[in-house]
User: What shape does this take?
Amino acid sequence: MPGAPRTFYLVRQANAAVRSRLERCLRDTNITISQYTVMSQLASRNALSSAKLARMNHVSPQTMNELVVGLAGRGLVERQEDTDNRRILLVSLTEEGRSTLKECDRLVDKLEENFFAGFSSTDLENFRKALQETAAGEKALNTD
Assistant: This one.
């Protein structure tokens, strides 16, 4: 495809647009995109170790620890010893964290609705499916 931008380039540009809009959307909540992502992951999985969260988010354990400490300092998450292994601290959302996440979700739902307003429901479903398949393929490559 001479002259046409590479698909990877287009994905990168789309990612930049999404990140920019998400940052603006979440600004008034004082929650970063990374914090929002971690809180969303915790909400759907109850409690996770910082190491597991680090792997899920492709960051170092030290980076994740800093993020978790910041959220804990704001009372949005709490850490408790794993009953099966006392050396592991499990991170979970507090009630304040769930409330904050609910507000963030409301804002992000509205943002997504506006961002993808030009998509038909079928196009959006196909787009989501393609993204999920791409992510699943990458995950499979990283487990080998």
Summary: Residues 75 and 96 are 7 Å apart (CA to CA). The longest strand covers residues 77-81. The helical segments are 7-26, 33-45, 50-57, 61-73, 95-115, 121-142. The first helix runs from residue 7 to 26.
